[in-house]
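Sample pair:
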Amino acid sequence: MPWFDDDREYFQDAAGALRQGDLVLAPTVILEPGESEAPGVSPVGLGEERSVQVWKATRHLLPEAPTLKARVRWDLAMVIPHDCALEKEFNERVGELVRNGTPEEVAIREASGDCTLDRLVAVAPIRAYEETTPKRREGIRTGQRHGTFPVPGSSAYCIEPGWVDLTAPTTLDRNFFSSNFRLASLTDRAADYLRASLARHWAYRDLTRADEISRAIGRTIVDIKAAPMAKDKLRLELFLDGGAGTITLDGSSKPAPPQRSAKRSP
């Protein structure tokens, strides 16, 4: 069974401080121009979306803020910042107190009680596979599609199969994240793949093979095999000397695009 189909490789109990990869119940929002006809009533079920009027344009203001509405959803979401980013101000405060002579245990307790530290946390919504096109589902499920991260179903944690939409993050106050709203955490292995997916999406850098490549430093490539995959896709296998194994690279068989490409019209 591939690891991305095995919920035991993905999930562990949520415990301790908020972590990257925590699965939480949380609101997520997409802002859009225009007016909303629906009243701002809270959703009655998970995955339900409400359209809420944020404000209406007021004339005689320059520049005028446009009429704005929000599509608000209440559902499963995933915490996306790294653990270090989630505790940056907390750790700075503890370090400052310790340097000024406060015992570490007291410093941790004092910093933990300061609700102004690390208040803002970004989450991304977890969507059902029915919310995307059929041709994209396999790439999402196997972790190959940019801007997504697969989430297998888990009866132990009452989680349905789905995918994290990294293109639609929302910033929330930390006070949203009570223990009642934390369903599960990612395992260390799954969190590594989440970080690779985030890097691939935000920086278009593929880190999934970083460990393999680092272990291959100093070895010699003795053979290369190329095999076509799906349309416009190519898989390369690099064979290393001394029985050190292989490195598998997946990519496009198309030539690289020119440096200057068409841009979206303003």
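DSSP finds seven helices and twelve strands in the chain.
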